[in-house]
Amino acid sequence: MKTSNSELLAGQIKEQLDGGLSTLDDDAKRKLKAARYEALEHASSLWPRLGLPALGTALASVLLVVIVIAQWPDTDITVDMAALQSGDIEMLSTLELEEIEELDFYLWLEEQNGAV
Amino acid sequence: MDKRRELDAFLAEHERRAYRMAHISTGCKDEALDVVQDAMIAFVQKYADKDEADWRPLFFRVLRSKIVDLHRRRKVRSAVMRFFTRDEEGKDIELEVTASPAGNPEQLLKAQSALVALEAALQALPVKQQQTVMLRAWEGLDTRDTAIAMGVSQGSVKTHYSRGMAKLKRVLGEYWP
To answer: Could you tell me if the ipTM is greater than 0.90?
Structure first.
């Protein structure tokens, strides 16, 4: 099979840049290692903390919205508490701010996965 | 603690490449190190619980996002500096700009290092083309994973990649026949 010019160039780019990795100075290597350990510390402290605060915040937010709507003076809006399934609350509690901010990306990603 | 070991191995495998990508894109070692550290922390906080098979595009997505943030901050800083360096007639005063280590690609082509020439050529590309080329040609991500890392469509990845490669070929063709 004939290799295209683009593939040849890609191969040369990879070869050159890979070669450049071996010339990294010791200071950069040391700092990268320190950065990795620092990041892993964030991971370690993340496991036990996950869940409770996020769930608490989400529940408080949902309750606040429900109370405000229910108490609003000039509206006939009634909140059907039975419709608020436990699954909905669970879903809300797992949503992170970043995921909400990048909703477009996640919708697109889901679309891509669906297309495969 | 298996997850921690897996994360450690994953980050150790990719940290140097991530650093070089950030360095090429920012032209500054210290800023590149900061970008990689921020990316590692954000990655473990947001994506550590995802399937390990998805880590690579997600890690480079976070890295790209941090690089773009840095470019945005530079733009703002530069606008503020321009505002404060106007003379009485409102004309911009030339700021003393230190040339990036990579400098002008054409000059560097004359230098004897293919790597330096390549880095200079990469640095001269628009950021999206530069990142697409590095993710596809160097990191070896396929079109789909590159699209995830870049937060763009696969069609857009193909366009940026082919334009970037065409420019590199034009600049480096003489150097790499």
So the answer is: no
Q: Where are the alpha helices (DSSP H) in chain B?
A: 2-26, 29-47, 55-84, 105-110, 114-124, 127-133, 143-150, 154-172
Interface mutation vs chain B, best among A9, A46, A98, most B CBs within 10 Å: A9
pLDDT tier at A86, thresholds 50, 70, 90 = low
pLDDT digits (tens, 9 = 90+) for A15-35: 989 988 888 889 999 999 999
Which chain A residue has its CA at the smallest distance from B17's CA? A21
So where are chain B's domains? Answer: 1-98, 101-177
Does B176 sit within 8 Å of A32, measured CB to CB?
Answer: no
Selecting from B36, B115, B137 the residue whose C-beta is nearest the C-beta of A20 gives B115
In this complex, do A16 and B162 lie within 8 Å of one another by their Cβ atoms? no
Domain ranges across chain A: 5-115
The helix/strand/coil state of A24 is coil
Would you say B146 and B157 are in contact if contact means Cβ atoms under 8 Å apart? yes
Domain B101-177, CATH: 1.10.10.10
